[in-house]
Every structure is written in C-alpha cells, then in structure tokens.
Write a structure and sequence with these properties.
Pfam families: YgaP-like_TM. Keywords: Membrane, Transmembrane, Transmembrane helix. With 69 residues, the chain is an all-alpha fold. The protein has one domain. It has 3 helices and no strands. The radius of gyration is 14 Å and the shape is elongated. The model has no long low-confidence stretch (mean pLDDT 92).
Length: 69
C-alpha cells in the first residue's frame, strides 16, 4: 500500500471526524443520518492514520508530496 494522503489532507479528515463525532455524541445528529455520520467518521480516522485512501487510488489522486532524492 503506497501512501497517497498528504499532511494537509490528513489534518482536514481528522478535523472533520472530530466535528462529526462531537455532533453525534452531543445528540445534535441522530437516527439514520447519525449512523451514517459515525461510519464516515470511522473511515476518515482509519484513512488518516494509515495515510491511504482507496478511492484516491482508484481515481489516481495523490496528495502526498513527492520525495526528492
């Protein structure tokens, strides 16, 4: 698995996951939409931690900076 998420992309995902988690656990978002939000939060957290997004790989997107040798 080659990394395809850069640091800014990872930070944005983590911030969005934190906001979504807060909205769910504070009771602002409930029901089916709340469940979908929790699933999206988990996906954002996992992809941020491992620096790999399967959708980015499918579409050929890479936000990871190119390393110079």
């Amino acid at each position: 698995m080659k990394k395809n998420l850069g640091t800014p992309d990872r930070v944005v995902r983590l911030v969005l996951a934190a906001i979504a988690a807060y909205l769910y656990y504070s009771g602002t978002v409930t029901g089916t939409f709340g469940l979908v939000l929790v699933i999206a939060t988990v996906i954002f957290l996992i992809t941020s931690v491992i620096s790999f997004c399967p959708l980015y790989a499918i579409f050929g997107i890479n936000t990871c900076p190119i390393k110079k040798s």
